[in-house]
Amino acid sequence: MSYRWQRSDRHFVGDVEQTQRLTEHSEVINNINLLDVSVGYAFSKRFSANVSFPFQFATRSQVVRSNDVAKTILTRFSTEAVGLGDIRMLATAWLLDPDQNKKQNISLGLGVKFPTGEKDAVDTFQVFDTNSLQIVARTKTVDQSIQPGDGGYGIIADIYAFKEVFTNFNIFVAGTYIAAPQEKNGVNTFRYDPRLKTGNPFEAEMSIADQYLARAGFGYTFLPQYGLTFTLGGRIEGVPVRDLIGGSEGFRRPGFGVSIEPGLVYARKGWTASLSAPVALYRAREKSVPDNEFEVLKGKPQHGDAAFADFMILGSIAKSF
Asked: What is the predicted pLDDT for the residue at 246?
C-alpha cells in the first residue's frame, strides 16, 4: 500500500507565482489523498508483474465572485470527488541476471492504465447568478484536478536502475511515462458558455493528457542491522503540453514541479516501509494548446494558471511472501 497527500494552493503562470491570490484569499485549495493498493507476483527472479488499485479522496475549495468591476469575493465553497481511480497493470524485467548482478542492475517495465476511475464526477457548486444577483446552487462536473479518472487508456513505460558505489551506498535513477493515445474524454468543463460566447471555446472538453515522473538520487544504509536507509534525490513530475501519441486538444493544465526528496526506508524480514517528503524547488505552469489557440483567436496574451503544492507526504508499506 502507498499513500500520497498534497495541498495545492500556490498559483503559478509560467514560473511566476501569483502572490496576489494569497493576499486577497482567492486561491484555489486542492487537498488530495491517494491510497494505492497493489499486488504483484514474481514469475522468476527476473520477471514480475503487478496490478495497482488507486483510491482517491479529494476536495477543492474556491471562491465565488460578483460580476461587478472589482469582481468582489462573496464567499468560499468546496466540492469533492471520492472513489476508485484508474487501475494500472505493469510487467517488469531485470536486464541483467539478478544472481550475478546484486550490486547493479536495470529494470524495464511496460504496462497499461485502464479508464476505471470516474471521469465525470459531479458536485454542487455555488454560482453568482447575474439575473437574480444572488448566489445559487448548481450541479456540475468537478474540476479536472480532482476527478478520480481521466477517461482514457494509457501506455505505461517504466525504468529503474541502481548501482552500489561502495558498501551500503547506492545511487539510483527511476522514471515513468504514461502516454495517452486518446485526445479528449467528452466531459464538459463548463469553462465555455456557447450561449453567451464567454470563456475559451477550445477548453470546452477535458483533455486526456500524458503524465511523467523522474527521480534520481542516492541511498545510504546507515543502520544495516535494522535495515534503515536514508535517501535523498531530485524529483520532477508533471503533464506535458503535447502528448507523444495523438492530439493535445481540450482543457489541461500542463506544467511541472521540481523537488528535493529526503526519505527513510526500512527493509527487513520481507517487510519494506518508506516515508518521504518532496519539497518544491521550482514550479511552472506551461501554455496549453488551447491557450495558444485562444491567443491567436483573440489577438491578445492568454496563459492559464495552476495551483502547486509546497510539499507532499509519500508513504508506503509492503510485504513479500
From this structure: 94
Q: 301, 287 in Cβ contact below 8 A?
A: no
**What are the structural domains of the chain?**
2-53+83-120+147-319 (2.40.160.40)
Q: Are 268 and 226 in contact (CB under 8 A)?
A: yes
Q: Of residues 197 and 76, which shows the higher confidence score?
A: 76
How many angstroms separate the CA atoms of 113 and 104, rounded?
29
Contact present, 102 and 134 (Cβ < 8 Å): no
Close Cβ partners of 296 (under 8 Å, ≥ 6 residues apart): none
Q: Kind of pairing, strands 205-207 and 169-179?
A: unpaired
Distance, in Å, from the CA atom of 102 to the CA atom of 294, rounded to the nearest integer, reads 54
pLDDT tens digit sequence for 211-257: 999 999 999 999 999 999 999 999 999 999 999 999 999 999 999 99
What CA–CA distance (Å, rounded) separates 231 from 96? 24
What is the spatial distance between Cα 239 and Cα 42, in angstroms, rounded to a whole number?
31
The three grid cell numbers given for residue 90, joined into one nine-digit string? 505493469
What would the mean pLDDT of 268-287 be, rounded to a whole number? 97
Contact yes or no for 260/276 (Cβ under 8 A): no
